[in-house]
Design goal:
Elements: H1 2-26, H2 28-40, H3 42-47, H4 49-152, H5 159-187, E1 196-199, H6 200-211, E2 217-221, E3 227-230, H7 232-249, E4 255-263, E5 267-274, H8 306-316, E6 321-326, E7 330-338
């Protein structure tokens, strides 16, 4: 009996080992189940040392290849991913450093530009002071002296001499007006007034009265105008220049100047229409440049600053200016200003939606 038991134990161990080898071919779970089963038969396994050693030697390679080898592969893959992330981090840090240096350089250049701009503005202020005082003072003296000569010695000059004096007085006045125009143009965008509500109906009435249209020129406001929150002096300059230009160039026996506005989706569209000589399309852009006039200055006194000033003011307020014209029929100058912040014709303030 004892011999048969001892003889059956190695056989049983070999069979179990063969089962383990077969199971390892299919899955690790089966191996673990068998091992768990062997835990219940621990006394029998320890009964024969050869059986236990044989089982251990057989199972160890299987466990390595089934459990630990995939784990090592995963660790290697993680290390590879770590190295990749480290390289990406280094590249990102290098890019951040480069962008930081670029931004620092841009900030430095902006500071330099701001410094230069501040200096230019200061020079412009000094220029305005020189123009308004050092140039206008002697110019006024020349104008006054010329007028005295014309009055006191008129009988001493022949017709040609009187014409020369008349031209001298006209040139002096033109230069004075030109200096005023340059000063006004230089102040736009640099010298700001307080934004106030301006009733354009009242403002247009004041402007028309100050211009004093000739009896042969009819100036009318065709539509009711809104209230705007603007710099009053600037919007006054816009209308005054457009209306005075329309009156100045009218070549018909009965001149007509019409002013009005149309409420559009986002803007008020204002217009100043006349029945003057009209403007060729090729001059539409040119007339908005400084010192540009179409008529000879000896025939029509003009500084060439007015329309440039109009464009600068309108664009500063977020609008645009343009014209439509037909030669021989007349011209219509349009400009827009934003609806937001204005008071419509019913007295309701227009705000953003």
């Amino acid at each position: 009996m004892i011999g048969n038991g001892m003889e059956s134990a190695p056989k049983k161990g070999v069979l179990r080992a063969l089962v383990i080898v077969a199971a390892s071919i299919f899955s690790t779970e089966i191996i673990l189940m068998i091992l768990f089963e062997e835990m219940h038969n621990l006394p029998l396994m320890t009964e024969n040392l050869l059986d236990g050693l044989f089982l251990t030697l057989l199972v160890s390679p299987i466990l390595y290849f089934q459990l630990f080898r995939p784990l090592q592969d995963n660790i290697a893959e993680l290390e590879k991913t770590r190295d990749l992330l480290k390289n990406q981090r280094d590249i990102l840090e290098e890019e951040v450093s480069r962008r930081t240096a670029e931004l620092s350089e841009q900030n430095r250049q902006q500071e330099m530009l701001m410094h230069d701009l501040k200096g230019a503005n200061e020079e412009l202020k000094n220029f305005a002071y020189v123009v308004s005082h050092d140039l206008k003072a002697p110019l006024r003296a020349i104008g006054s002296l010329t007028q005295w000569i014309a009055e006191d010695y008129a009988d001493k000059f022949d017709e040609e001499g009187r014409e020369h004096l008349r031209l001298l007085v006209g040139r002096t006045r033109r230069m004075d007006a030109l200096i005023d125009g340059i000063l006004q143009y230089s102040r736009v965008g640099r010298v700001h007034e307080e934004l106030v509500r301006v009733d354009l109906n009242l403002l247009l009435h004041e402007i028309i009265d100050s211009l004093g249209p000739h009896e042969a020129i009819s100036v009318e406001v065709e539509t009711s105008l809104p209230e705007l929150r603007v710099e009053k002096t600037r919007i006054q300059q816009v209308f005054q220049n457009l209306i005075s230009n329309a009156m100045k160039y009218i070549d018909k026996p009965q001149g007509e100047v019409r002013i009005g506005c149309i409420a559009e989706k986002d803007d008020w569209k204002f217009y100043v229409r006349d029945n003057g000589p009209g403007i060729e399309e090729r001059h539409f852009e040119r007339i908005f440049h400084l010192f540009q006039t179409l008529a000879p200055r000896d025939r029509v006194e003009s500084t060439g600053v007015g329309l440039a000033l109009v464009r600068k003011i309108v664009e500063m307020h977020g609008g645009k200016v343009w014209l439509e014209s037909a030669v021989g029929t007349g011209s219509t100058f349009y400009f827009t200003l934003p609806l937001v912040g204005s008071i419509d014709r019913e007295g309701v303030e227009v705000n953003e939606a």
